[in-house]
Amino acid sequence: MNQNAIVDILLIEDNMNDAELTVRQLKKHNLANNLVHVTDGEEALDFIFCTGNYKGRAIDKLPKLVLLDIQMPKINGQEVLLKVKSDPRTRTIPVVMLTSSKEDPDIQKCYALGANSYIVKPVNFEGFAEAIKNLGFYWLLLNQPPV
After folding, report:
1. Beta-bridge partner residues of 68
2. Domain count of the chain?
3. Of 65, 108, 126, 133, which residue has the fewest beta carbons closer than 10 angstroms?
């Protein structure tokens, strides 16, 4: 991928089955043309803040949407969320927590840290497919982000 290409969606998911299903559903509805998938919180922060393997990337090429799991290796999703929402350059990026955790403390903490939405992954394929389709349509096509 060209490091300075426009990124519509940054998918931060360590479960390859969930990532594959997410990408497949987004592609099915033509919502994944400019998608980047990373598998841990450290790589996600490197991508967003143009450090590490992504130090050549332009910081002004921010993703239009971040889909973020909570349970991530190296740096968990809540820490990624905190760093993204704490930085003036990135705080307006919509971050949707897409996780299997239904725990109320996780939900409360994510919203307190600035999550724009919290979606519990449905366990059946049809529910998951519908959730991803609706998520993509809303955040990429209907939502009007700040300029």
Report:
1. 12, 97
2. 1
3. 126
Query: Alpha-carbon distance 127 to 26, whole Å?
Result: 14
Q: Is residue 51 a part of any domain in this protein?
A: yes
Examine the pLDDT at 57 and tell me if it is beyond 80: yes
For residues 66 and 110, give the distance between their C-alpha atoms in angstroms, rounded to a whole number.
14
Query: How is residue 146 annotated by DSSP?
Result: -
Q: Is residue 1 a part of any domain in this protein?
A: no
Cβ within 8 Å of residue 33, ≥6 positions away = 8
Report percent pLDDT > 90 for the chain.
47
In a domain, 80, yes or no: yes
pLDDT of residue 83: 97
DSSP conformation letters of 37-99? EESSHHHHHHHHHT-GGGTTS-TT---SEEEE-SS-SSS-HHHHHHHHHHSTTTTTS-EEEEE
- The CATH number of whichever domain residue 19 belongs to comes to 3.40.50.2300
User: Does residue 145 fall inside a structural domain?
Assistant: no
Residue 132 domain boundaries: 9-140
Band (21; pLDDT cuts 50, 70, 90): confident
